Structures
1.
Amino acid sequence: MTTLIQNGQVYTNGQLIVADVVIDNDRITAIGEPGFWQGSIDQRIDATNKLVSPGLVDVHVHYRDPGETQKETIHTGSLAAAHGGFTTVGAMPNLDPAPDTPARVAEMVRRNQQEGVVHIAQFATITTGRQGDQLVDFAGVKKAGAFAVSNDGSGVQTAGTMYQAMKGAAAAGLPLAAHVEDNSLLFGGVMTASDRSRQLGLPGAPSVSESAQVARDLVLAKTTGVHYHICHVSTKESIAMVRFAKQQGVNVTCEVTPHHLLLTVDDIDGHDTNYKMNPPLRTKADQQALIAGLQDGTIDMIATDHAPHTVADKPADFTQAANGITGSETAFAELYTNLVKPGTISLTKLLDLMSAKPADLFNLNQAGHLEPGRPADLAIFDLQQSTRIQAADYQSKGINTPFTGDQVYGDTVLTMVDGHVVYQRKEG
């Protein structure tokens, strides 16, 4: 079947052009000036005054399946991704059982392909059960289909374990994505130690719990040569160290979440636990450092850390509520509205951070680019009309986000995976 997407503002080869896109079955076959295509057409999609983007790529989502399917499943999580314009995601391994053996990884890869409506790349764990010091079979989990390894949700506490893990991951050619958190520096904190935590009377954890482990890991990464990736970087000290490490030739990349770019510790009122996440919201100075890191290239990509929970997991008591918020369905619109429209970053920069960069750096070779010969993975966004984010529209099982109710631009109109429409906005 031949599909023609007409008159869109198309992001291709790093630039925005008004163009038509021709799709033949599962592949993009041509991109050209409006009206250039003279061949037969089975389906037309009018993208006038709309953005046509490569399918977005999110290397950090939590799908809770198996283990906590009341929070999310592979299917509902992938529907949420499609709603947000994502066509490729990286699923974290904090599952029960965890994908910590080649057989378990292979089973997750099979289920992801069978039950997801978008492409789902699978993380394996770094250690058995995602805890302790027993390393996984890195070569084995890669052969089984893992695209990277991570213990996300838990920092690797022992330097010797991280050193050996980096050596093993490097030998297998696997990126190692680290949740950087030194548990001995948390002191029972449920938010960042700050003037705000003291005002609210809530226990605070110093932000050095992140940056101390970043410092350790950067030294180890330089020694081992591993592709070391820092998950959800959040402090000004971490950014400064990553910037310096890159100048020294360390093979380090990092991601930032939309919520750490758009919110700070001062947004916490102590009762709305949708503002509780890990790493916790940081200070205004940290937020400014993250934005500067986006602007100068220190931060390589944006990832949502999509973390669905049930309503019961998020009681009003900040000390008892689970960490994490959903992100797949709000990320692009919130970032376009709050960073691109005010001129903080360009639209092309945002698209690069959410498509080509994560795909290229994690060797997701079929993702992140809208070009002839590539898979027909794309999204169409409405940048002209504002919409209100509503919980009733979420495809995820989780509604735990502080962004519900926001008025935004950049709503997803349509998402296509391998030439098939997997999400389409209801009009009227």
2.
Amino acid sequence: MLLVKKIKADTVIFTEGDIDKTMFIILDGSVKTYAIRNGKEVELAVLHKHDFFGEIEMYCNKPRSMSAQAITDVRVVVIKNRMQLDQFFGQNPAFSGKILRLMGERLALVNAAL
């Protein structure tokens, strides 16, 4: 069974530069992702129910490229490795298509920026 965690509003979930491969899927609430550039916070996205974040580090050996903070109280599924991600897909097959589509869109944006 996958871990479901409750996180209070305003809690920093992870920080840019952290070494961690955990991915999160939002069950309830809102999370913002952001980066610090030239000493200023740059908001990257506001995520809601059924959105996910932290997946990039699961696939590469690099520190976190952004920070994530709960905007409201949130409940998230905590996925610590690819085996747990496969387990989640097995339990939620419709969700796997959403993740693949969004990861493809995110990759396309990065490629366009390069």
3.
Amino acid sequence: MPVKRKKNSGIIRLHNAVFYAYHGVLTDEQNLGGKFEVDVDLHCDFAKGAKSDHLGDTVNYERVYDCIRTLVLEKNHFLLESLAGSIGKGILGKFKKVDSVTVRVRKPGAPVKGVIDYVEVELTETRK
């Protein structure tokens, strides 16, 4: 579902942040861990930052990365959906300039009985 944008809105994207974590339903996933990849699309108003060229007038993506890293590593989740929701809610809670966020979480080599590159979930959280 496309996200409705404000007139001066834009997207800041962080693509393919990679973490080693212990998410999953299976005991091996919880004990051995694995690689997780995260993308976020931060929908926000660019007008003030575009005019001022000042970091304080936009979303600091280094701080967003730190927030994602903390959320991925601090708590283990059984489901990718739960992890993605935690990231989305965490970003909206911490970054007031973000109107909505789309989060994609990938699990390369997910344990399925077949050959796949990865399993991915995507969700969009919108500020109320």
4.
Amino acid sequence: MKPPIGRDTQLCMSLSARPGNAGSLLHNRLYELLGLDYVYKSFSTADLPAAVGGIRALGIRGCAISMPFKEAVIPLIDALEPSASAIDSVNTIVNDGGRLTGYNTDFTAVRDLLLARAIDPATPFIVRGSGGMAKAVVAALRDCGFDTGVIVARNADAGQALAAQYGYTWAAQMPHAGAPLLVNVTPLGMAGPDADALSFEAAHIAACEVAFDVVAQPAATPFIRAARAAGKRTISGAEVIVLQAVEQFVLYTGIRPEPAMIRDAATLAHGAQVGELVASVS
């Protein structure tokens, strides 16, 4: 049984431009199932240095980092674990007695999903975006053996650097021919001002085999809905966010939940379909 919140309760949190409820639902449900004296709360901030200082000063055990803070947070913490230093992107901070270490569990989640879905690494891909999450996705693709891909990014410096780092091609505009694997790592389709935006054109979706969207809120983005309607295989951002959150949970607590617990918590946060999918991977 979970203890009541008191002075010894460990606080974990998230920082995002557009905070939602899913992370809080998932983490707090796992605390409940395991009887842990933890509580999780999502936040946004207009003052990242002050927020990170608060993590250190208040003894907050862990913090999930989402767009647009995954790169900006790096100079504010004390150390980077290899998963974060290799791609210069942090999505998790762990506080050990005031020392803040950055990790990247997005990489792990994307890699595990690519392997679990048995996508042939000979499949050519297009990744749209070049930010912190794009770095994790592209690193995971390379780690899984994908050798033919295009990074589409309007930011020429970031796009070219990311493509060159992993041996892929950069383009400022979407290639006319498309690719069998399409991956959206932009905010297009995310709840808010971009909610109705389609990250890939209908012709590209019609020509693809697998549609992968890292946007988690909503799980069924316009891109994912269009791909499902066209009979394509899909991987949703909700699956990514659950698997990476489980890795964060392990870092914060030292406990790995059983698959049935992960299914329960993911179903609460994202629905039964996502719960079943992630339990099969975890």
